[in-house]
Amino acid sequence: MRPPSRPSLGWWNECLTGDTSFVTALSNLCRANLQAMHAILSVQPRAIFIQSEATEYFHAEEPSERCLQHTAFLNEKRFLAFDLTYGHEVKASLYTYLLDNGMQRQEYEWFRQNTVKRHCVMGNDYYQSNEHLVHEDGSTSESGEIFGYYSITHQYFSRYRLPVMHTETNREDPEAVLWLRKEWANVHRLKQDGVPIVGFTWYSLLDQVDWDTCLRGNHHRVNRLGLYDLDRRVRPVGEAYKSLVSKWKPELTSECYGLHIYNF
């Protein structure tokens, strides 16, 4: 018997929860993504697309069969957005889950037949909140960093075998500079170990507003996550980022290395 799924938060758009709403939204988003790529390629056949998806992992809190089974299911479910986008065949348990929650067989086959994977760079985001603890009752909570970006990105790369870009990460002061250095070290080590990393991004260039509540209300609260504050004064992490670019520029621009760093 398949374990219960992780409940949807219902924060954005229609604010619906439940597996059927999740599968519907996932299917619509992935289909729109693929249709947009096909439209762009009809005009510019050399286009390259960078998806951005959370890099996640679920850790079992208890050794019970129920907890381990649920954790295994969530660790397969985390791949669904990329699986549909890249036409990757899902396991039988996930296929049944999709069909049980509204996806039609021909709809699933459409994703398998319409992928443009060879034009894609797999963008993955990593924050402290990307790893989760799975409890005996099926609920989850943040576990904090346990495996880290290196180990989890290896899992995603092994599954899809695509070039990789670290598309999002950040921390507030006073941990921001240390976090930047650690994420960069992970990216550099992955590159050295043969994973085709092509880019790294600190998100964002400027501080954000109400990001701590995922934009679900107008609280006008500044989240000090940018390389610069909202008055465009550089933060310590911005200085560290500038130093990183300066020191690594000769290697970054070498033809053999081929890695770029960005901010948005």
From TrEMBL:
Domain of life: Bacteria
Matching InterPro entries: GH
Protein name: Glycoside hydrolase family 1 protein
UniProt organism field: Hymenobacter humi
